[in-house]
Design brief:
Layout: H1 2-18, E1 20-30, E2 33-34, E3 38-46, E4 52-61, E5 69-79, E6 82-83, E7 88-100, H2 114-120, E8 122-130, E9 135-143, E10 146-152, H3 161-167, E11 172-177, E12 182-188, E13 199-203, E14 206-210
Length: about 210
């Protein structure tokens, strides 16, 4: 078992060394409550077959008044890309992923629960877009009673919310909370997030962050 874990750790280090890193703000919503954005790094490796592998580094769940839950590095292997207008997109449904201990200073290896989650079966839904300079994704998973939604980066691609605002600022849209509760109805897309608290919302069918 130690030999298997050592081999996996060596492979993970090699992936980090050869992958392209994207650093941006990551927002987590737990049972509908959003946590403050934190700077996070996602590593992406291009595979020879045109697919990519994605690593969300040092993923942590932090809930107000509770101790942090240290998950670790989450590995999403063999992701198919679909060419779009100026970027590639991807979409995964109930994909089984792997997780290992993270490497944050001050956090002991046995505090990371990633390996336990992998052993139990860790499944995620994930959608995203990628270019050479920008990475955006949304990720959803269940952790016991916790319904977790993650947004990394901002959807500023041609079909994203900001691009739509520039091209169609007067388009009328509905706005929903992450739990599906309608918070605005038939408002101009350019004003969709005006007056709302920080958090993750669904505007015109897309998850966006109000910072």
């Amino acid at each position: 078992m130690k030999r298997i874990l050592l081999g996996f750790c060596m492979a993970a280090c090699a992936l980090f060394a050869s992958a392209k890193n994207y650093t941006d703000q990551l927002t987590v919503s737990i049972n509908g409550m959003s946590t403050p954005p934190t700077e996070t790094t996602i590593s992406v490796e291009e595979l020879d077959n045109g697919q990519i592998s994605i690593v969300l580094q040092n993923f942590i769940l932090e809930m107000p008044g509770e101790d942090p839950i240290y998950v670790g590095h989450i590995y999403v292997d063999s992701v198919d890309l679909t060419p779009a207008d100026g970027y590639n997109s991807f979409s995964l449904s109930q994909r089984q992923v792997r997780a290992t201990a993270g490497d944050l200073e001050g956090v002991k290896e046995d505090e990371w629960i990633g390996q336990d989650l992998s052993d139990a079966g860790l499944f995620i839904d994930m959608d995203g877009k990628i270019t050479d300079s920008k990475f955006y994704c949304t990720l959803g998973l269940m952790f016991g009673p916790l319904d977790i939604d993650v947004v990394f980066g901002t959807d500023e691609f041609p079909s994203g919310i900001r691009g739509a605002q520039v091209g169609n600022p007067d388009k009328l849209v509905d706005v929903y909370s992450i739990l599906g509760v309608q918070v605005k109805s038939s408002v101009k897309q350019a004003e969709a997030l005006d007056g709302l608290q920080r958090g993750i919302y669904i505007v015109d069918g897309k998850k966006v962050i109000k910072k």
